[in-house]
Amino acid sequence: MFAVKLKNARWNLVAGIVMLVLGLFIWFNPFGTMLALAAYIGIGFMLAGLFYIMAFAGIRSGWYLLVGVLDLLVGLILLFNLGVTAASLPVILALWCLTVGVVQLIGAFEIKKYGLPWGWSAIMGIIGLIFGLIILAYPMVGAITISTVTGLYAVMFGVLQLAEYYMSRNSYSIFVERR
To answer: Is residue 117 part of a domain?
Structure first.
């Protein structure tokens, strides 16, 4: 069992290195990576949309379907208009944040009726609204913020993947020593 975990942990090492390099590249080339970032985010939106639509198939919440369709549309816009998208990415992202923030707030109160945990959805909805309004007010700051936050996320993801890899290795060696 631990050999399988260690073997799978190697993928954490690979993912960590890739995301760390990607994050550093984005940080040191914030404006030069806007086209690539538009494509990267577009693909991410499309995947998220597909996952929301798959979730809708299981739980039949119209809000999941709405967010899924919105994500798919935004992803397609980003991918098929990269030049325009790079220039307008802050505004597109702000409008998406506002729309999804509203949907998350409504969805949070909908699931509250069923006694399910709803607080995190409400908080994320509020954060989305605030983030969207800030970007709309200062689009140039939004462009820099998008690159910085995306780079920061990629670096943090990479570091956490590397930490998970090393923790998995240490737990394997502790297991082997105890045997």
So the answer is: yes
Domain-located, residue 142: yes
CA 86/CA 39 separation, integer angstroms: 9
**Residue of 14, 38, 9, 33 lying closest to 23 (CA atoms):** 33
Q: How many independent structural domains does the chain possess?
A: 1
Which residues have a Cβ under 8 Å from the Cβ of 106 and sit 6 or more positions away? 63
Phi, psi of 114 (to 5 degrees): -95, 5
For residues 118 and 104, what is the distance between their CA atoms, to the nearest angstrom?
10
Helix 34-59 to helix 62-80 angle, to the nearest 10 degrees?
160
Which H or E element spans position 140? helix 139-178
Q: What is the pLDDT along the chain (179 residues), one digit of tens a residue?
A: 445 455 666 787 888 899 899 888 888 887 777 778 788 888 988 999 999 899 888 877 788 889 899 999 989 988 888 887 777 878 877 888 898 889 889 988 887 888 877 888 888 889 889 988 988 888 877 777 777 877 888 888 888 888 888 877 766 555 455 55
pTM to 2 decimal places: 0.50
Residue 174 structural domain: 2-34+84-178
Q: Is 81 helix (H, G, I), strand (E, B) or coil?
A: coil
Residue 39 lies in a domain: no
